TrEMBL record, chain A:
Limits of the Response regulatory domain: 9-132
Pfam families assigned: Response_reg
Keyword Phosphoprotein set for record: yes
One example of a Gene Ontology biological process annotation: phosphorelay signal transduction system
SUPFAM superfamilies in UniProt: CheY-like
InterPro entries listed in its UniProt record: Bact_response_regulator (IPR050595), CheY-like_superfamily (IPR011006), Sig_transdc_resp-reg_receiver (IPR001789)
Protein name: Response regulator
Modified residues (4-aspartylphosphate): D65
Keyword set, alphabetical order: Phosphoprotein, Two-component regulatory system
Top-level taxonomic group: Bacteria
Phosphoprotein listed as a keyword: yes
From TrEMBL, chain B:
Enzyme class, broadest EC rank: transferase
Organism: Larkinella rosea
A GO molecular-function annotation: phosphorelay sensor kinase activity
Protein name listed in UniProt: histidine kinase
Classification lineage: Bacteria, Pseudomonadati, Bacteroidota, Cytophagia, Cytophagales
Key words of the record: Kinase, Phosphoprotein, Transferase
UniProt cross-references to Pfam families, sorted A to Z: HATPase_c (PF02518), HisKA (PF00512), PAS_9 (PF13426)
Domain Histidine kinase: 200-422
Record-annotated membrane-spanning stretches: none
Length: 141, 426
């Protein structure tokens, strides 16, 4: 079992309560990640990040739902990438439907990965495996 | 008995005499201005012909026969001369026109414009678009004025061009343009609606569907043991149906997006594209022990993503509709271009994709390329019935053609013909 420090800190921003529950239910018992308390909007993500004083406490991965009120996933991504302090953080966007435009735009703005929302427990775990694999590299943004 | 003439009769007679006088003046004028070629005068030896042919006869004929009205005005604006075209334009006999003020033919609301023209015209050639009064109403026309130095002093020549048919053409053009514009707006609106629909379908419709899938899965996962056998069966059916609906939504979305996508074309080696696609099918090819033979394919200017999808769909179909008693054999090759009977004479390349699968009855060949058309029941061959519709739409967008030949139980052949280059307006 990896040490707590080796667990990747995952922050989810998702306005749908069911989807937040799926995350906790399906991924909560994984030993290679630590799920930070889920947030509901991009605005909360920004507030959260600005409230973290120690860089070591910043999340390793932020998973953003694309369709959120006020700030979309892409807009939140742009904000994160505009701050040097957050350059180490991998940003993943996930959405019910993933079109080529979303993929292109996400990568252009310095995101690491775009995934469509899984439809099963296995789907969630496979998505998380893929996210962790991508996180071995340095964010391109 | 001579009855004394009434006042009215006298006035009438007077008018008739005035007209005679006018006509006499006109004749003299006509002789002077060269409108008359010859005069016949009755002398003591009978009729004698006096020819008036001079060097300017050519010009007189020219002026008389031209389609424009031509008049000359004196400094007061009175008509000294007019050709017959002008007389018929205003609907009066020639004799009535001479000596009238040209202003007589100018409608009230054009008077000011005409006065300016008349003043300005003495110093500079000028053109205006205006109307003149005729016995049949207003005639739209262009007046073109030039000051002339004649023997007897100065005069102003006015060329009157009838713009009636031009105006009508313009009006027709304008109304056609307006109609086109309206249609364009309607089209834009409907395109916008379609995109709205695509966006609704892409997200809003899929969101609840995904929840159905998720919660059914959870129910099955966590409570399978507690459910009676037929409830499990129903649950499986819910999951199957929602999976199928999701496939259909995604497929119809990719179909509708084809029309809104920006097309970017690149010159691609189709051999590379096919090998890439085959890599994705590696597992299925192994499982089905399929043999895929790929010949040398041409380099064409295509939208790589879309053409990739074409091969994906066709190879996937060839694998899907294979016969159970023998492993699939799929052959993808270039056809000699002589096989293409293209009337427009644009260089085309043809590629055939053939299989030894279950085939289909050729009477349904038109149907297979339509949306949601299936020739097989979905419990045996799954699919949304959209793959070939997408394929055809992509080929259409590339200005190409797709044909299919098949025999039931023997196999199918799809032939794609694509132009070597796309003429994109740069």
């Amino acid at each position: 079992m990896p040490l707590d420090e080796a667990k990747k800190k995952i922050l989810l921003a998702e306005d749908d309560v069911d989807d937040r529950d799926f995350f906790a239910d399906f991924l909560g018992d994984r030993t290679d990640i630590r799920l930070l308390p889920g947030l509901t909007t991009g605005v909360e993500v920004i507030e959260y990040l600005n409230g973290v004083s120690l860089s070591e406490l910043l999340p390793d991965v932020i998973i953003l739902d694309q369709n959120m009120p006020k700030l979309t996933g892409l807009e939140t991504l742009s904000y994160i990438r505009s701050n040097e302090r957050f350059s180490r953080i991998h940003v993943v966007i996930y959405s019910t439907y993933v079109g080529q435009e979303l993929v292109d735009e996400c990568l252009k703005r310095g995101g690491s990965l775009v995934k469509s929302k899984p439809v099963s427990k296995d789907g969630y775990n496979m998505m998380m495996d893929e996210i962790l694999a991508v996180c071995k590299s340095v964010p391109v943004g | 008995m001579n009855t004394p003439k009434t006042y009215d009769q006298l006035v009438e007679e007077n008018e008739a005499l005035l007209i005679q006088l006018d006509e006499a003046t006109e004749t003299i004028h006509a002789i002077r201005t060269g409108q008359v070629d010859a005069l016949v005068v009755e002398g003591k030896d009978g009729h004698e012909l006096y020819s008036l042919k001079t060097a300017d006869q050519t010009y007189r004929v020219f002026i008389e026969t031209m389609n424009e009205g031509a008049v000359t005005l004196n400094e007061e604006g009175l008509i000294l001369y007019c050709n017959s075209t002008f007389a018929s334009m205003v609907g009066l006999p020639l004799s009535k026109v001479i000596a009238l003020s040209f202003e007589t033919f100018i409608p009230p609301d054009c008077k000011e414009q005409y006065e300016q023209l008349f003043e300005h015209g003495w110093t500079e050639d000028t053109k205006v678009e205006t109307s003149i009064l005729s016995s049949n109403g207003l005639v739209p026309c262009q007046l073109s004025v030039t000051a002339l130095e004649l023997d007897g002093g100065v005069a102003m020549s006015v060329i009157i061009t009838d713009l009636t048919s031009q105006k009508e053409t313009q009006k027709l053009l304008k109304s056609n343009n307006e109609r086109l514009e309206e249609m364009n707006i309607a089209l834009e609106v409907s395109n916008h609606d379609l995109q709205q629909f695509a966006s609704v379908a892409s997200h809003d419709l899929q969101e609840p569907l995904r929840k159905i899938q998720m919660f059914s899965e959870i129910l099955k996962d966590r409570h399978l043991g507690e459910l009676p056998a037929d409830s499990v069966k129903y649950l499986e059916k819910i999951i199957d149906s929602s999976n199928r609906m999701r496939t259909m939504i995604i497929d119809i979305l990719s179909y509708s997006r084809l029309s809104t996508q920006n097309d970017s074309y690149e010159i691609m080696d189709l051999t590379d594209i096919v090998h890439e696609v085959l890599k994705d099918f590696e597992l299925r090819i192994q499982e089905q022990k399929a043999r895929v033979v790929v010949g040398r394919l041409p380099e064409l200017e295509v939208n790589p993503g879309q053409i990739r999808q074409v091969f994906q769909n066709l190879i996937s179909n060839a694998l899907k509709f294979s016969r159970s008693d023998q492993p699939p054999v799929i052959e993808i090759k270039s056809l000699p271009s002589a096989n293409v009977d293209d009337p427009a004479d644009i260089p085309f390349a043809s590629i055939s994709i053939s299989d030894n699968g279950i085939g289909f009855d050729e009477q349904y060949v038109e149907k297979i390329f339509s949306l949601f058309q299936r020739l097989n029941t979905k419990d045996i061959y799954e699919g949304s019935g959209i793959g070939l519709a997408v394929t055809k739409r992509i080929i259409d967008k590339h200005n190409g053609r797709i044909k299919a030949h098949s025999r039931e139980g023997v196999g199918s052949t799809f032939i794609i013909s694509l132009p070597l280059r796309q003429n994109n307006p740069s």
